[in-house]
Amino acid sequence: MIEAFHSPASAAPIGNHTMPMEKFQLVADRAAKISGIRLLLPAPVTREDLLRVHSEDYIHAIETGNPRPLAESQKFPWSPQLYPSVLLTNGAVLAAARSALAHGIAAAVASGFHHASSQHGEGYCTFNGLVITLENLRSAGAIRTGAVLDLDLHYGNGTASLLHHRPWARALSIYGNDYCNNLSYRDISTLHHTDGPNHYSVPLPAKTDGPQLLELLQQNLPRLLHPTPPDILLYQAGADPLRDDPYSPLDLGAADLEARDRLVFEFARRHSIPVAWTLAGGYTRPVKKVVDVHLGTFRAALATHGS
Ligand SMILES: [Zn+2]
User: Fold this and answer.
1) Rounded CA gap, 133 and 278, in Å?
2) Are 191 and 208 contacting, i.e. CB atoms less than 8 angstroms apart?
3) Residue 214, Cβ density class (10 Å: 0-12 exposed, 13-18 middle, ≥19 buried)
4) CA of 154 to the centre of ligand 1 (A)
5) How many other C-beta atoms can be found within 10 angstroms of the C-beta atom of residue 184?
6) Cα(300)–Cα(254) distance, rounded to whole angstroms?
7) How many domains does the chain have?
C-alpha cells in the first residue's frame, strides 16, 4: 500500500491565479480511488521546523502579512489562511518522507516549493518544504544524508541556495526553463547557474523529447549516489515539462513523463533509496491534463513499488 498525504486545508484562497490550486484536490480525489493507494491527512510542520530553514523575519511576515512585500514575495496575495495552509503543505512533504522511510515510497499531494530560499519566497513558493523535511528528519536522527531530484520544468534555485551550507544534502535539478528573482527565462541559455559541490544543474535544450530526457536521466542520476547513496530521495515530479504547458519549450507528452517517473522510481528501488515525491508545477489548461500527468506518477509508483 502506497501512502499519499493531502490536506484539503492546504489550498489558501489566492483568487484567479496561474497556479491551478484546485489540482491538488482533484489529484487526491482520483488517487483515493486507485487500489493500492491510501490517502492520509498530514500534520502541519511546526515553527521549530521552519526556523531550521527560514529567517524569523520572513516567517513573521507570512504569519502576519507584514511587511506586505515580503509576505507576498512568493507572488500570492497574502491572506490570514496562507500561513496555516503552507504549514500543511510542508507537512504533507514531511509525512510522505517519513512514510517513505518506513515503506520505501510515498506521495505528497502538495508542492515542494523549490524556489523558496531562507529570507523570502519566490515563484509561488513560500517555505521550502523539501529542505524543511530533510532538516526535520536529520535533527530527529532518522537520516544522515538526503537528496532532492528536481524534475520540475524550472530550476530549483531556492533549494540550491539552501544547500550551500548543508554539505550532508545534495540536489540535482534537470530543467527546461527558468524562474529566478520572480522573472521567467524561457531561453535558459540566457541564465547560467553555478553548480556547487553538492548541487548540480542540467539544462534541457528546447524540443527535448522523451528518449533524450530518459538518456539524460540515466547519465545524471548516478551523481546523486556519491559519495554514498542518500538515506532519502525527495523527488519533484513536475507536470510543467509537458509540451502543452504554457511555459514549456520541451517536446514531452504525458506518456514520456510517466516513463520518466518510472525510471526515477526504478533507480531508487535498485539502490534501496526510500523516495517521496511531490507534485511540483503544472499550468496546462484544462487542469485535467495536469491531473492526468500527476496520476501517471502514481501509476509509475505502483508499477515499481506496488505489491
Ligand atoms: Zn515549475
Assistant:
1) 12
2) no
3) middle
4) 4
5) 11
6) 12
7) 1
> What is the residue range of 113's domain?
2-305
Predicted TM-score (pTM) of the model is 0.96
C-alpha cell at 303: 508499477
> Who surrounds ion ligand 1 at CB < 5 A?
152-154, 240, 281
pLDDT per position as a tens digit, 229-280 = 999 999 999 999 999 999 999 999 999 999 999 999 999 999 999 999 999 9
C-alpha cell at 26: 482533484
Distance between Cα 237 and ligand 1 center (Å) = 10
Counting Cα atoms < 13 Å in the Cβ hemisphere of 257 gives: 30
- The CATH number of whichever domain residue 256 belongs to comes to 3.40.800.20
Ligand 1 centroid to Cα of residue 179, in Å, is 8
Distance between Cα 299 and ligand 1 center (Å): 21
Evaluate whether 236 touches 108 at the Cβ level (below 8 Å): no
